[in-house]
Amino acid sequence: MNDILARRARRATVGIALSAALVAGIAPPPVTAIAAETSSPTGAVALQTEDAAAAKEKAYAAMQEALKTLEAAKDAASPEKLAVIDDDIAAFQEIYDMVVTEAAKWRKPLPAMQANVDAAQAKYDEAHNRTSGLQAELNKAIDDGASNETIKQLRSEIMSAERREKSCEDDLHHCQRRLESQERQVQRFESEAEKAKAHIDEDVAKRDALLDDLEKAQAAYDDACKAYEEAKAAADKVTSPEITQPTETTPPSNSAQPAEPAPPASSPATGKGATPSSTKQANANSGKPGKLANTGDTAPSAIALAAVAAAGLGITATATRRIKNSK
Description:
The chain is an all-alpha fold. The protein has eight helices and no strands. The chain folds into two domains: about 1-30 and about 260-325, no CATH class; about 65-240, Helix Hairpins. Helix content is about 80%, strand content about 0%. The relative contact order is 0.16.
């Protein structure tokens, strides 16, 4: 029985000391308060860190893809390949200049040759009309019953006119063939010039497209690098100590706070039920639990700890006397 009472007295003493430590801020806050203070900020930071890391990885992948595109564009528009295209352009430009010159040379006599054709055509028309006129006179003379001499004369003139007409027709055909041949030469050179110009335009467009693709790939890569740097900076900022370590917060108002222990009814040290003056001053002036009224410091003062120890010793001494008296 006495051992039971002694153990109860020791437990009471330890409980009072632990309660005082909690009030003074020595012992850690309850588990529920710790969870309330840390779980929400830590979860938010973890989610923010995960999003920033995912954005950084995505930006890095985009930058690598842009780099591949840039390398392919650089390979396609390498100085060696551009030099080959420029050589082709120069070769076709030379051909173009040559055939254009030839076409101009062959085109130059065309107006004069056309004039010759026109003149030959006029002579042929005149000779043809002469033949047709003589034939009409012959037919009229025959119808009118003209003499044989007249008819013979007309027929002789018709034969001469027909020879003249045939000669003019031959001259006309010759002039026309020369003109047509000259025009075909001009057309051939012009066609060659068009083909050379098409090759030049194609090569120029190809070169310009390669350079344009290279410029666009370089701009896209620069943008991707900038985006990656921004994502990396954002991720580094999220994972920096100022962000990852949650700031110390005030425990929630509804969290369980240990009640301040009541002073013992009587103390063997004083023989009275009065509370020490230092403890009274601390309890009267303290507006918040765990802070001293005079200094505002959360650390317990020597007077407060002495009062707690005295209270504990008083309870222990009283319990011990009761045990001895019971014997």
